[in-house]
Specification:
22 strands; five-stranded parallel sheet; FAD/NAD(P)-binding domain; single chain; about 450 residues; Enolase-like, domain 1; alpha/beta; seven-stranded mixed sheet; globular
Length: about 450
Amino acid sequence: MASYDVIIIGAGPAGYNCAIRCGQLGLKAAIVEGRATLGGTCLNVGCMPSKALLHASELYEAANTEFAHLGIEVAPKLNLAQMLKQKQDSVDALCKGVEFLMKKNKVDVLKGFGKIAGPGKVAVGSDTHEAKNIVIATGSEPSGLPGVTVDNKRILDSTGALSIPEVPKKLIVIGAGIIGLELGSVWRRLGAEVTVIEFLDRITPGMDAEVAKTFQKALTKQGMSFKLSSKVTGAKASAKGVDVTVEPVAGGAAETLSADYVLLAIGRRAFTEGLGLDSVGIATDKRGVIANDHGKTTAPGIWVVGDVTTGVMLAHKGEEEGVAVAERISGKAGHVNYDLIPSVVYTSPEVAWVGKTEEELKAAGVEYKAGRFNFSANSRAKINHETEGFVKILADAKTDRVLGAHLIGPAVSEMIGEYCVAMEFSAASEDVARTCHPHPTRSEALRQAAMGVEGWTMQA
């Protein structure tokens, strides 16, 4: 039996960042992981492999549709096996990088599925270890749907959709959230006919409504089709494909849609099964989520971070919580600003946002002003032939403090951070509007939109 200051169960972004910070702060720490490799869902079967396929598929489509206009004549040929291999090579390298960081920060890695075995005890296989503090960072898993049984042969979850051995002629995506649209867009670019079925009357719930509407138009123009306000009541797989039964949410006749593959992407649920929570009196909600109070659970000495607790299921939110909990354990004042957790959709165009939407501000009765700037008026975007989308900035009508930033367009995932920093320091829209930005860059759209809050946009 080994004894530690902290044992972290789960080596995803929340867990491994918590472990790194513990090591930096001089705490004796161990991290437990049931997978063969570290990195959790994000590195192994989530954020990273999906971004590898998004990037590769974007280049493939550009070679087919854009290169000739730029004066580059090529005859691209898809090598799907190589595309999947380079994805896995990148994932393997990242996972090894996390292993290196554990060694660098003197964190012990305990391989096997961890289980809380009572106060201050964690069982890993046949071994039991003691810890003054236990951090639960077990992440999440894809949510299921009655009548749709995932076999990862024809009916896929997000993991299975990363490794389809052929380009589907037809792909049905159940769920118009971020995961479904990202993976659907990958296979659409590679040649699949993609239909997205969504229970709600809009795509991407939580996104600013104007941005979501523009986003859907962009994806439809690219070839995706959408069936909104529709519910899937069943999916029957065969050796060659899947038949999906769909009904209108409001009631009406059912129809059957056929596809080569189906991707079930209706969200994720916390992974807490078999964790031994009952041994310390911790309860979960119906989605498996463990509540927290500044990272603390209801059990003394046990903390929780990442997807397995309340809040948005995003890797960077988990990272922030992991760092904050490590600092609290060491006696520091760790803190997470949950109002400024950015969200990104890595499609083309990209979508990124932080802070309040117009709908939220209206519901709260907050008076605000909006500034907007289209990428069609941005010099760099025009030269690069990527003019779709806009930047919208929302600021308090009285104080001018920035309350929200909503971006759809080229490379906006790399630009939203500017507004995260601005809002963290309670900047006014005028602060951004009067900050010099390099020309010509896409980031000038951020400044021009801020100018628009007070009606003095210069470039449109």
